[in-house]
Amino acid sequence: MKAPRFLISLLLLALAGGAAFAQEAVEWKHQDFRPEFALFTESEAYTRETWTALPPLEQTRLLGEARQPAGERLAAMTVYYETAMKPWNTQELNGYAAGVKDADIAAVKLWLGQTKAEAFKKKLSVSRAMIKKAAAEGLDAGDRAALQPYLTPEAIADLGSLRAAASLQRQAAVKADPARNEIPKGAVNSTLQGVTGRLGGSVSGNLAKAFDGSTATGDVTPVQAAAGRHDIPAANTAVSGLTGRTGALANKSAGAASPQRIPATPAVKSSVPAPLPGTAAQKKSTAWTSDAYGITVQVAGRPEPLTFRKARDAEAAIRQLPDGSISRITLYGHGSPGMQTVGDDAYDPDSAAAMLKGKMARGGVVQFSGCNTASIGGASVNPAVGISMAARRLLYFSLPYFQDRMDGVPAAQAREQWEKTWNADLSRDTSLQMRGTVVCGYRTFGLVPGRLPGLTRLMGNQEATTPGYVAGKKVCYRDGREVPEP
Amino acid sequence: MTDLGYLLEAILLLAVPFVPIAVGVLLRRKFSPSPAAEGAEAPAPTGAQKAGRLIGAVLIGVGAASILFMLIVLLNFKGYI
């Protein structure tokens, strides 16, 4: 009987050890969770600091949630990379050379590593350089050898004949007899000049247009001979731009000007697959108005503050911090008398004090960066303060009072309700529950220039987690008494 | 009676930004330069006229800024900003 008991004890110990191990903190970008951390990085969900501040249980949960989407994204990126590293035909060369951006290479680096990103980058740079050289002076044997790992033999041949093709096209344009043409000579010439003339620019995007009529974005558009009925089919132009048969085909195009359209070749998908739907990158706001809010926690001894977009993440991180470690915390969002929102969450004196109970350092500061997060206070000669106070009375007393009256609420009841709340002081009430901590808020509406519609989009800070300059009248309290701003 | 009192208060509060504008317009009219006599050159404005018109312009500016501010606050309250 002793042996089974011993074994069971060992088993229990092993299970307990496993559970304890599972709850250990996971290091940022740990090799075992590479795709998950790549997803966090790409979606800007977490940084090293915000991740480290999370409790181990929360980390484990988040890693579990990220496993499947990260796997899917990794698979898509692998397919993209493997396709891109196969030898390219002319159309693919065209599409990749014009379409791949630095961000695409960065995505390859993030998901598949530095080595693969470097290989992809080298292939692109060699190809782009050779396209330029081919258009300007042609390719020599060394160039062809350098291109062999990257392009199909046909693509190399096409590239090699690019210069000759351009020359032939010019000759074809000159030889074209206007009397026998069914389309005006000017229209044909303009097409041919449009094709050949742009090659001189040696820009990959222009070359793309010369090759198959596609633009730098990868969209295929026909080369216009003239407005309306004299379109030269895009595919014909593409072939004529690439091969030694250019002259004959160009003549044919010029002479016959067949109205029949040959379907354009499909564009090459040169950009990396889009981030998965539902990730922060997808949700990133591009609106003209601001969607900025968040919590910034300055921990004593840490040079960089911790910033959180979600209040839930911030609360989880704060719970893990040692007591008395927060020197400053800024809650940024919309405020109204007696409360402040941070995204979808709202704080009143009780919930703010509960979140920070015991965590504030001696002399630490809680900053409510929201409108009307303190009471109006005494009279002021500042007209901006006066007008802000008038607006506050209108919005938080007059408006709800008359709304209640229209809903049939008795005047006395509505009056009592709104007279009590319109001038509530979130900062003072919070400071009464957090002895020794300085709690600051705004007596007025706080105008943040970075939130102005339009400007916020130009600055790309729609989703800032920390406010910049705030125009408003600030006040600070300690233990319910007004103190100078620290 | 309570409702009427609060209605009056709301009207007055809404009128606050228009007060400096009205005062500014009055000041600029009061201190407008004297009209020139026929064929004669307009007299140079006195120091008081210059100051009065400047204060009037400042008040009009403050009133306009106040209306703009109220609009921004309203849009913020409604969630548009």
The greatest interface between two protein chains, and residues involved on each side, is: A-B, 27 and 22 residues
> How much beta of chain A, percentage-wise?
5-15%
Main sheet record of chain A: 7 strands, mixed
Q: Helical amount among residues of chain A, as a percent range? A: 40-55%
Summarize the structure in words.
By secondary structure, chain A is α+β, with helices and mostly antiparallel strands. Helix content of chain A is 52%, strand content 10%. In chain A, β9 and β10 form a beta hairpin. In chain A, α5 packs antiparallel against α12, α6 runs antiparallel to α7 and α13 runs antiparallel to α14. Chain A is elongated, with a radius of gyration of 33 Å. The N and C termini of chain A lie far apart (70 Å). Chain B is mainly alpha-helical. Chain B is 72% helix and 0% strand. Chain B has three helices and no strands. In chain B, α2 packs antiparallel against α3. The mean pLDDT of chain B is 88. The chains are: A alpha+beta (486), B mainly alpha (81). Chains A and B meet through α18 and α19 of A and α1 and α3 of B.
